[in-house]
Amino acid sequence: MLVLVINCGSSSVKYQVRDTEAVGEENQVIAKGLVENIGSAEIPSHTEALHIMAEALVEPLHGKKIDAIGHRVVQGGDVFSHPELITEEVIAKIDELSPLAPLHNPAHVLGIRAAQETYPGVPMVAVFDTAFHVTMPEHVYRYAVPEELVEKYGVRRYGFHGTSHDYVTGVAADFLGIERDQFDAVVAHLGNGASATAIKGGKCLDTSMGYTPLSGLVMGTRSGDIDPSVLTSIMMRDPEMTPQKMDNLLNKQSGLLALTGHSDMRAIDEAAEAGDARALLALEMTAYRLAKYIGGYHVAVGGAQALIFTAGIGENASEFRERTADLLAGALGIKLDPETNKVRGDQPRLISTPDSAIPVLVVPTNEEKAIAEATAALVA
Q1: Which residues contact 133 (CB under 8 A, 6 or more apart)?
Q2: Which residues contact 101 (CB under 8 A, 6 or more apart)?
Q3: pTM value?
Q4: What are the DSSP calls for 44-75, one per residue?
Q5: Has residue 138 been placed in a domain?
Q6: How many CB atoms lie within 10 A of CB 9?
Q7: Which of 147, 153, 191, 283 has its CA 20 to 30 A from that of 31?
Q8: CB-based contacts of 54: which residues, under 8 Å, 6+ apart?
Q9: Annotated active-site residue in 129, 166, 184, 206
Q10: CA 65, CA 4: separation in Å to the nearest integer?
Q11: The predicted structure's pLDDT at residue 372
Q12: SS3 of 179, please?
């Protein structure tokens, strides 16, 4: 089945066409690309962006037709616990959840509408980032706030990166020869956005992101965990600090960018090697925060059978993995193999020593593949 995977942002559309029946990653990916600057004079709308995408796909498709379309949707709230065939009712519910993801869900709705215009009659599926985390029990996802905030604003922990966490959990369990429903692990999805998830019996027990993707780990431009009173105090003392400015400050001006002037881990590593004190501090803070979450989630699942690194930083930043593992060595008995830790590749691999108390894996994530497979299964 030829599946077009679409990830619509407010100003861009990332896409990939996959043949879900082909063998091997190199054979599955038929085409991929990115259309940017939506809202400009050249590309005024998502509809125009998808027309550009469709034109770019004419040659690689060689006359073949798209069988189904899978849309990545960031926020499914507590409404969607699995992929859904897109109907008018589903679109309306995605739109209703926009207050929980104001930068994402409205763009997803625009993208779905544009895809309906560009590919009329083609079945479409919404795959939700939050769906994997709906298995969190109430004592985990609840915040200790008045009930009226829960009822009026849907205040609770939702978690994100669920498609990635779900995918690498399954791959890691297979790699280790453990039945998924018997698999307990900690997954560290480390990219520009980063989250850690506690896996119990192959399902999500807890995750570091919360009501929004802001909480938890130190990220490229996001602050991660911070005392809420810091924010309310600043807003009370600074009459020019609006909620919008504060939201922008925490999501786009904080994290590694605020600490070093860079949001890219490679630039920070280079600065640290050159002796830059702020870069060294940033790495120390980021690894320490991650190690705290890993240790806590190890306890939460009753003893993890594996620690899994994934996503851009998780898969490629060997020195950062080593820095984090060193913080866990004494308490968890984790030992990385210096040579295998440096290896890069697109296959799952073990990077710990034989005498490490817990296996440590690098599992490349593939959200497009996961979305395509979920779409094909549901449409079929």
Answers
A1: 141, 157, 158, 159, 160, 162, 165, 197, 204, 207
A2: 74, 75, 212
A3: 0.92
A4: -SHHHHHHHHHHHHHHHHTTPPP-EEEEEES-
A5: no
A6: 18
A7: 191
A8: 118, 119
A9: 129
A10: 10
A11: 95
A12: coil
Residue 6 pairs in a beta bridge with 15, 71
Kindly tell me the number of DSSP H helices and DSSP E strands found in the chain.
16, 12
Are 119 and 214 within one domain? Answer: no
pLDDT in tens, 254-313: 999 999 999 989 999 999 999 999 999 999 999 999 999 999 999 999 999 999 999 999
**Angle between helical axes of 277-300 and 318-332 (0-180°, round to 10):** 50
Average confidence (pLDDT) over 79-98: 93
Residue written as token pair 């990635």 = 164
Residue 129 a catalytic site member: yes
Other residues' Cβ atoms within 10 Å of the Cβ of residue 283: 24
Q: What is the DSSP letter of 181?
A: G
Both 62 and 198 in one domain: the answer is: no
Check which CATH number belongs to the domain holding 62 and give it.
Answer: 3.30.420.40
Structural domain that includes position 353:
178-362
Residue type, 66: I
Residue type, 252: K
Residue type present at position 137: P
At residue 185, does pLDDT exceed 90? yes
**pLDDT tens-digit series, residues 340-364:** 999 998 899 999 999 999 999 999 9
Token representation of residue 186: 């900690």
CA gap 315, 256 in Å, rounded: 18
Q: What is the rounded CA–CA span in Å between residue 142 and residue 151?
A: 12
